[in-house]
Structure of Response regulator transcription factor:
Amino acid sequence: MIRTLLAEDMHLVRGALVALLAYEEDIEVVAEVDRGDRVVTTACDVQPDVAVLDVGLPGKDGLEAAGELHETLPDCGVLILTGVGTPGLLRRALDAHVRGFMAKDAQPGQLADAIRRVACGERVIDSEIAIAAMSSPDAPLTARELDVIGAAAEGASVSEIAASLFLSKGTVRNYLHRSTAKLGARSRIDAIRIARESGWI
């Protein structure tokens, strides 16, 4: 049996997935959680072979939980489910050592097949998302601009970014302003969104 942990915050969706997988003779859902910050502790308790995680979990998103799960239980394969697959999300997933990445609107049989393949150590990536990721443009930002906008994305203030990167506050503001302009963004927050969705930070 492939022991499976399922993390999905929408109760109706989670119930439907559990019912769907109950028809598979070789897959057993051994735990369900509705928050990303419960994934690792629950996985340590039940020792699943595969964790199926929704990307948009409360408490901690699915990709962050996947990264921590890989550190704690590296033999547990992770399959990410997403409503909107972007190249940036795929790159973050690969950085988190995720083995599977598929859209929620996939056919029911595809989920069970993906779980089996992930359990065998294979990588399963939605083909349309993979093609979009390969064709997405390189970042128009310099390495230093990416450092600054990446720190801003983590919530660091201008002063904190300046101290951590050994820059003046004025230089940090200039980098943020230039990055926003280069990306055609409306604001710093919009620039961070664009950079994240493109997989540059």
User: Anything to note?
Assistant: The first helix runs from residue 11 to 21. DSSP finds ten helices and six strands in the chain. The first strand starts at residue 2 and ends at 7.
